[in-house]
Amino acid sequence: MPSNDGATAWRTALPLTAIIAGVMALGGCTDIKPQEREQRAGEVRVNADPELIESDAPVATAGPPPAWSVNGATASFGAAGEAPLLALSCDRARGQIIVERAGDGDVLTLRAGDVEKNMPARPAGTARVQARLAAGDPLFAAMAAPQAQILLIGGAGEQLTLPGGVSVRRVREACLGPEPAPEAAPPPPTEPAVPTGSKPL
């Protein structure tokens, strides 16, 4: 009969091979880095960015947009609580409107519609300049027109575009008085009434 020593040796070596493979696998697990262990365990480490941590400090928001405000015979355009970007005031004694803005320089230019004026300017207080122009000048009539757009050049500030309209008209009227209402058209002539019962000639 053939010898079974080879088969017996193979069956004996098989469990030993499995044991060695298992020991090697366990040894390989010891080489896993701590980060890999956390990831394999389902743990994710998040490093918070200090700049992204929530803070109780108030968030800065943009203020209200600049707008016109009228006080008596003076109209100012700017943001509330700040120096006006442009101010118009009436000098009744001279019949002039004073144009004032922040900055320096010796010329202020105003444009509205097709009308443009280059006005000599002079210092007016701290870091402001002003110019004068007759209240009846066509420039102010153009600035007071509905939906008018005003262009201001000069001074230290940049070129400024702002709306015109009713605020400018109030300053202009404070110097000139309100514009007279247009005269009513005379009624059409009427034919004389014919007396009842009379016969025409």
Notes on the protein architecture:
With about 200 residues, the protein is of the alpha+beta class. It has a domain at about 65-175: Sandwich (Immunoglobulin-like). It contains four helices and ten strands, in the order ααββββββββαββα. The strands form two sheets. The protein has a six-stranded antiparallel sheet with strand order 1-2-3-4-8-7, with helices on one face. It has a four-stranded antiparallel sheet with strand order 6-5-9-10. The radius of gyration is 45 Å and the shape is elongated. The model is unreliable at about 5-10 (pLDDT under 50).
Layout of SSEs?
Elements lengths: L4 H25 L4 H7 L26 E5 L2 E5 L7 E6 L4 E7 L4 E6 L2 E6 L1 E2 L4 E7 L3 H6 L5 E5 L6 E4 L2 H11 L25
Antiparallel strand pairs: 1-2, 2-3, 3-4, 4-8, 5-6, 5-9, 7-8, 9-10
N-to-C SSE series?
HHEEEEEEEEHEEH
| Mean pLDDT over the residues | 76
Mind telling me the C-alpha Rg?
45 Å
What is CATH's topology name of one domain?
Immunoglobulin-like
Span between termini: 170 Å
Strand content: 25-35%
Class based on secondary structure composition and strand pairing: alpha+beta
Main sheet overview: 6 strands, antiparallel
CATH domain class name of one domain: Mainly Beta
Shape: elongated
Strand order of the largest sheet: 1-2-3-4-8-7
